[in-house]
Write a structure and sequence with these properties.
Chitinase A, domain 3, 5-stranded antiparallel sheet, 5 domains, about 675 residues, alpha+beta
């Protein structure tokens, strides 16, 4: 009973404790059950107009476009820049796709399945389809039958792994272009709709006509701002702030960073050069005497020995005279040579024979109903070795068959070039590269630089003492693939958006350089700060003050000659000034001056005019209006033609600018 009474006495406290425990239990259960939701949201590369772009969709699109580039270019070794280009192209396609879908939904616009089918495989396919070399015939022209055969081949089934891989690649290729056609058609529909709503009116047409027809000649003087020393005018902080407020809409920004960095070149030491030369000297005797030269060369050389036949055009330039001299014979060997940071030695394996340089091949169709394919001309180095051996050993008109996977491919030699002198040359070469010891020494130097210079001020001072160039990088964006031209520098971008202002980075390896950076600015506001634009505002404010000074100097002046004498400048002449012009006389682009000249009464002297490069005073002649009759319809048509170039770009840009976009790509790069 006593225990029950104690519970009653502390009832309120117990209720609170139990309530908190229950809440914790419920929240814990909710968070656990919802973990898949939160995890998935963290896997979204972006959200565009309320639609999640999951990482898998983004990666699949990148892989798809990569396959397309491989097929179209015949390459598979894409460098960092190409990979970056693919990523950016995929992002732009996703932006256009999802924003256009959202706009299309609002106005009931879409590309139907029947419409897409007609555009892809109809009697007159879309230009994107007609432009694919995969669907060309032997004449190099688009052939719809070739397209139909290609699509029919996608329906095949095979258990052959190699054929299955080729089939998958072909399907990926087609699906990309089908998607591209749909997206392009959607763009055309939308921009055509916008263009149909935006028409040039008669008022615009008359203004454009008058701008060309009316012109005036003017004599003028111009005092450039640079002719007055900056020290003669005083700009206040208030002047800078006033200009900043005036121009602030121009300074809208996305979050960005500014950094400075120094580079430590990763280059070989003197010991690395000595070690490389010593290696070749240790292999020299075996290289000269070995019957199996590939056994010596291939494990030790940057250039493998594969028995290739060199011509005078293809042999390395430094060995041309040695290999093709009249007295050359098998077994001849050069001394160890040093060219372009590379030590090398060469041995003639065979010489004094002739072989063709190139061969023209045709692939024979494997199945009935299919067409043979002319492949073109090839050098031996451009063909797989098993094909090259038979092709260059055969004669014009001969056929040979090569095993490919589980199948076979027959080729016909259509033509073969005239035999020319050849030589088999074994080359043992090693480019001097930094050893692990050198690499470690250079890395430790960069590390030591960080330890001794942990802030922005000492960073700059130490760099100056060591003779290191400090390179600035402004407006670094969160999704930037790299910093300036530094290779593999995406990690620096990630660091810049995670570090605090003034922080010095760790060592980054960027290609053949170690890089250390300091974060000099963190700009997360919607607009660039006053301090970041102060230099350009200072120039404008200074020019404003100079303009006031010049105008005051010209007060009371009643002629252009007087003004020229007062400012110690020459009178110049501008002919045929009109509102359609971009330049004013020899002064360059001066729209305010052109406008003033056309607004003035005939034969009058202007007040001082503040231009872009200096202060002007004009003396106009008589306005001249060219003969001709205003044709409103023709003028509107001409303006509409200009709109046709700009409206599509502006329309797509505007819907993306207004769209609700959350870009998380930086988390996945």
């Amino acid at each position: 009973m006593a225990t029950l009474q104690k519970i009653r006495n502390h009832g309120v406290i117990l209720i609170v404790i139990v309530g908190v425990a229950m809440l914790a239990f419920i929240l814990g259960d909710f968070l656990n059950s919802g973990s898949s939701f939160f995890n998935r949201s963290r896997e979204n590369v972006a959200e565009i107009e309320g639609q999640d772009i999951h990482y898998t969709e983004y990666e699949a699109a990148k892989d798809q476009l990569t396959e397309v580039y491989k097929i179209e270019s015949g390459r598979s070794d894409f460098d960092e820049d190409m990979t970056s280009q693919i990523r950016n192209q995929v992002w732009q396609m996703l932006l256009v796709d999802y924003t256009l879908r959202a706009e299309g939904k609002k106005i009931g616009m879409d590309v139907t399945a029947d419409e897409l089918s007609e555009l892809c495989i109809g009697e007159h396919p879309h230009q994107l389809i007609q432009g694919r070399r995969a669907f060309y015939d032997e004449s190099g022209q688009f052939n719809r039958e070739q397209l139909v055969r290609f699509l029919a081949s996608l329906e095949q089934e095979t258990e052959n792994p190699e054929q299955a891989a080729n089939l998958k690649q072909a399907k990926t290729y087609w699906m990309y272009w089908e998607k591209a056609v749909r997206l392009t058609q959607m763009q055309e529909k939308y921009t055509n709709l916008v263009q149909s709503l935006i028409k040039a009116n008669s008022l615009e047409a008359k203004f454009a006509y008058d701008a060309r027809q009316t012109s005036v000649d003017a004599d003028y003087i111009m005092k450039p701002y640079y002719a007055i020393a900056d020290s003669l005018v005083k700009v206040s902080n208030r002047d800078i702030k006033r200009l900043y407020k005036l121009h602030k809409p121009m300074y809208k920004q996305t979050p960005n960073r500014a950094i400075e960095y120094v580079c430590f070149d990763i280059k070989p030491s003197e010991q690395d050069f000595a070690d490389t030369k010593a290696l070749l000297e240790s292999l020299k005797d075996e290289f000269i005497s070995s019957e199996d030269v590939a056994y010596v060369v291939n494990p030790n050389s940057d250039l493998m020995y594969d028995g290739r036949d060199y011509s005078e055009e293809t042999v390395p330039a430094q060995y041309k005279e040695f290999a093709f001299r009249k007295s050359a014979k098998a077994g001849d060997v050069t001394e160890i040579e040093f060219v372009d940071d590379t030590y090398s030695i060469a041995r003639i394996m065979q010489c004094g024979y002739n072989m063709p340089d190139s061969v023209e091949l045709k692939a024979i169709a494997a199945q009935e109903g299919q067409e043979d394919s002319e492949l073109g001309w090839f050098k031996a180095s451009q063909l797989p070795q098993n094909i090259a051996e038979k092709a260059f050993a055969g004669k014009r008109g001969e056929r040979f068959t090569i095993a490919q996977g589980l199948g076979e491919q027959t080729f016909e030699i259509l033509d073969i070039s005239k035999p020319t002198p050849k030589v088999k040359l074994a080359i043992l070469e090693r480019k001097v590269t930094p050893s692990s010891k050198t690499y470690s020494i250079l890395y430790n130097q960069a590390k030591q630089f960080i330890v001794e210079n942990p802030n922005e001020e000492s960073f700059r001072e130490a760099a100056k003492e060591l003779g290191l160039n400090v390179t600035p990088q402004f407006n670094l964006q969160k999704n930037a693939d790299k910093v300036a031209q530094l290779k593999s520098s995406r990690p620096i971008v990630r660091w810049a958006f995670e570090a605090k202002e003034g922080a010095v980075s760790d060592v980054f390896e960027c290609g053949n350089q170690f890089v250390v950076a300091v974060l000099t600015e963190v700009n997360d506001g919607d607009y660039r700060s006053l301090e970041s634009v102060r230099p350009e505002l200072q120039i404008e404010a200074t020019n404003n003050k100079k303009a006031e000074m010049i105008a005051k100097q010209l007060k009371g002046i009643e002629s252009l000659e007087e003004a020229a004498k007062e400012l110690e400048v020459d009178v110049q002449h501008a002919e045929g000034v009109n509102l359609a012009a971009y330049r004013f006389g020899n002064a360059g682009q001066e729209p305010a001056v052109i406008g003033a000249a056309l607004a003035m009464e005939d034969n009058t002297l202007s007040a001082p005019i503040k231009g872009q490069a200096g202060v002007f005073v004009l003396k106009t002649g008589k306005k001249v209006t060219a003969e001709g009759e205003f044709d409103a319809a023709a003028e509107r048509q001409q303006l509409q033609g200009r709109y046709a170039y700009s409206i599509p770009y502006q329309a797509l840009n505007l819907i993306q600018e207004k769209a609700d976009i959350v870009d998380n790509r930086a988390n996945f790069q």
